[in-house]
Each structure stands twice: as C-alpha cells, then as structure tokens.
C-alpha cells in the first residue's frame, strides 16, 4: 500500500512535468509579427482627409480633401469615367465621371445661350499623366516654383475625374490668368456654382490653397456645396478643412 506522503510526492512530480511541457510548447511557437505598412501602402484617412476608412469608395466621394498634404493612391481610378462628349473640347479622348459630365453639359448650354463659348482643355488625368506634367514643370522652372503651378502626382484634383480646365476662343484656347477678363471667364466666376462647380484656386487665396490663381480650374462638388461656398465667399480648401476638422 502506497503511503500518503509518497502519493503527494508523485502528484507534485506529475504536475511539474505537465507545466514544463506547456512552457516548452509556448517557447517553441513562432512569434506572430505585426504587419507593418509598406512605404507604398494607401494613405490613411488622416492623410487623405476623405470620409470612410480609406477604401476606394471613400476616395470617390465628391468632397475628398486634396491639397499639398492629402493625396490619392497612385492606382486610384475614379468610377463611372466616360468620354467627354456633348461639349466643345480641344481634343478627343478626354474623360470625366458621368454624373459630372451631365452637369458640365448643362453649364456649357447655359453659357452658349448667352452667346459664350466654353471649351474643355483638360479633364481626368491619371497619376502617371500628372507625374509627367509635374516633371516637365520642374525641369523648366525648378521644384519650388513648379509646386505652386502644378500639383504633384497624387495631389491633383484632376485624378478625381471631377475637375476640368476650361478655356475659350477669346483667350486663344490657352490657360491664362487673363481668362478672368474674358466674357466666358467672368460668366463662370458668377455662375459656375449654379451647376455644382467651384473655382479651386481663386485670386488672392494663394496662401490658403498653396497654388497660383487659376481662373480656368473648376471642380464639381455638387450644387448645394458649391452654392454654400459661393455664399460664404471662401475657398474649397477652407470649406473642406472645416468639414473634416469636426
């Protein structure tokens, strides 16, 4: 018959052996590494300033905040791109979001009814196209000046598919600040909001927007928002800063 002290001793030995086995299995288990974001990963919500969690649908929102700090992913392509038709354009093959094109047509018709001729010079541009344009500008003027005249790739509103550069025959189909003095430029400044478009980089707001005055550059944000911006006499940049600060 086994004595009680011996039974207690055997119980302790067995318990210690089991504990050692568990410790060994934990020690031999590979440590799971926390996945680190790569340098090429998509920007976060704070970096882009758009609603949502950084998904492609979030980037597609009409009120995505783009500026020198907030960028789109290099591979972002907006939804619903269609060829620009039904309006005058300097070349074929340009594209815009379908919903934006509808409003652009309405705006061009309204201007035409007043004897004015608006012409699209540039619409959607991919990250790669913007990279080429920015590179040429840097080569010609240096990076400091180029960064005030052209957005870096990923930071251009044209990549959203909601933005157009507009010119006219009265300015020789060019992009010039003199466009503000043409009948078409004046009309756009007074009426673009009625169709949901805002001038992204207005005169006297260079310190706010970070870009030189561009009376030809119009982004579609919807009639309600465009009208509010017009009423408040602020820039789109100021509107979006306030919107995403809350």
How is this fold's topology laid out?
Elements: H1 4-28, H2 45-48, H3 56-59, E1 81-83, E2 95-97, H4 98-112, E3 119-122, H5 127-141, H6 143-149, E4 163-167, H7 183-191, E5 197-199, H8 206-209, E6 217-220, H9 223-232, H10 236-245
Antiparallel strand pairs: 1-2, 3-4, 4-6, 5-6
Helix pairs in contact: 5-6
Describe the protein's architecture and organization:
This protein has 246 residues and is of the alpha+beta class. The protein has one domain: Muramoyl-pentapeptide Carboxypeptidase, domain 2 (2-Layer Sandwich), CATH 3.30.1380. 42% of the residues lie in helices and 9% in strands. It contains 10 helices and 6 strands, in the order αααββαβααβαβαβαα. It has helices spanning 4-28, 45-48, 56-59, 98-112, 127-141, 143-149, 183-191, 206-209, 223-232, 236-245; strands spanning 81-83, 95-97, 119-122, 163-167, 197-199, 217-220. The chain has a 4-stranded antiparallel β-sheet with strand order 3-4-6-5. Strands 1-2 form a two-stranded antiparallel sheet. The longest helix has 25 residues, at 4-28. It is globular, with a radius of gyration of 29 Å. 29% of the residues are buried.
Order of helices and strands: HHHEEHEHHEHEHEHH
What is the domain total for the residues? 1
Give the C-level CATH assignment: Alpha Beta
Query: Based on helices, strands and strand pairing, what is the structural class?
Result: alpha+beta
Shape: globular
> Total strand count, please?
6
């Amino acid at each position: 018959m086994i004595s009680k002290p011996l039974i207690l001793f055997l119980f302790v030995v067995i318990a210690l052996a089991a504990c050692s086995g568990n410790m060994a299995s934990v020690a031999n288990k590979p440590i799971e590494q926390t996945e680190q974001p790569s340098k090429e990963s998509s920007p976060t919500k704070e970096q882009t300033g758009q609603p949502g969690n950084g998904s492609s649908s979030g980037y597609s929102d009409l009120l995505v905040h783009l500026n020198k700090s907030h960028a789109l992913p290099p591979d972002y392509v907006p939804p619903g791109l269609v060829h620009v038709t039904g309006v005058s354009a300097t070349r074929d093959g340009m594209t815009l979001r379908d919903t934006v094109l509808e409003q652009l047509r309405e705006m061009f018709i309204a201007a035409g009814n007043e004897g004015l001729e608006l012409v699209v010079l540039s619409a959607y541009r991919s990250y790669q196209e913007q990279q080429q344009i920015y590179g040429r500008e840097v080569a010609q003027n240096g990076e400091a000046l180029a960064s005030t005249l052209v957005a870096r790739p990923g930071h251009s509103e044209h990549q959203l598919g909601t933005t157009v550069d507009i010119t006219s025959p009265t300015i020789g189909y060019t992009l010039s600040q003199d466009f503000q003095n043409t009948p078409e430029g004046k009309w756009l400044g007074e009426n673009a909001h009625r169709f949901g478009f805002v001038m992204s980089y207005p005169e006297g707001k260079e310190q706010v927007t970070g870009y030189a005055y561009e009376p030809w550059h119009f982004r579609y944000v919807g009639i309600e928002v465009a009208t509010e911006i017009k009423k408040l006499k602020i820039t789109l940049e100021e509107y979006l800063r306030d919107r995403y600060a809350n």
